[in-house]
Amino acid sequence: MTMALPAQFAQYIPAIVGKKQVAVQYGPIGIDFGSECIRLVQFARRDHTLELSASAHVTCDAEIRASAKRTRALVRKALRKHGFVGRDVVSCLPPDDVKIMMLSYLHQTGKQDEELIVQRIAERVDDAIDNYVIDFVMVRPNVKDGQERSALVAMAKRETVVTYLECLRKAGLMVKVLEIESTAIRRLLLAKYDHGHSANLMTVSMGYAQTYISVLSGRRLIYERDIDFGERQLIAMLCEELDIDEREARSMLVRDERPAIELSEDEQTVSVTDGFYSVAKPLFMELVEDINRALVYAASETRGMPVERVYLTNTVATWRGIEKFIDSLIEVPVSVLVPFEGFNHTHASTTELDPRGALVAGMALHGLTETG
Q1: Is the whole-model pTM more than 0.90?
Q2: Looking at the DSSP assignment, which residues form a beta bridge with residue 24?
């Protein structure tokens, strides 16, 4: 037996159903194919609040990656098991496949930034410029004619880009955009602050061989610099000092729940990590000099406003005690940029120690924040 609703209630049904349909907006899936795993993250906007919707960290060795069929099956299983919605993804090329650089050029009336940037890049490469895919983000967009502008440029071989896109397609995914890493990190950082945020913030992304320093003033990127400094030099130093191999060196430094290994010397007990940071301090001081230059530049560009906090991300940010060590070398508070901190993630599994976790989280926020 069915009962008809009174007319005065029935007229509200379409509005109620429509509201339920648009209450949750799912973002794209941020995905990163690492050498040993696949990292996936998805956010959703529910009632104007961002929340972590799904997260997965899936082991994937070279043998699986070599098979498009097995990779596709692995990705499908992960999406289904962890509750991901849709197949749209945002991704970045592997670090070794993309060159990121800063370019400065004079703004000229009647010429587009794209034209001037491509012209400068063509002067730097030996190969034909048509063989590359180029993307860029303006660093200093508000300048007058004849003044210097700066742009953060990412470039990769066209063949490499096509191959990567094809791998994603064969995995059953629809690529929404290929991202510049620093743009994704910037998006994550800004999502943690209110829309009215105006402070200066710095990110230091330390990878295997390169470190990128970025400064945000409110929502504007005002400084970007790349440095030939990273995990490779630091691990090599640790291996030489302690006469150990690379695997042992990494196990000593990785941030986990175990106590730091300790060595006894002259009746004093010191942790291996403390000892290493002491030995590596000269190397870090070169990085500190670059950080201090960025701090001075940020203040000069924003009428004396200091940088409020420095955030560490990428590979070296997973090392035990790294934030305390760098904090002791500069006058600005230092923290590790934790990917899911501040987001509701009741129904999603989280792995905060993934070196590229912040990057993937930033990619997953594409389209859900003002920083597209």
Answers
A1: no
A2: 46
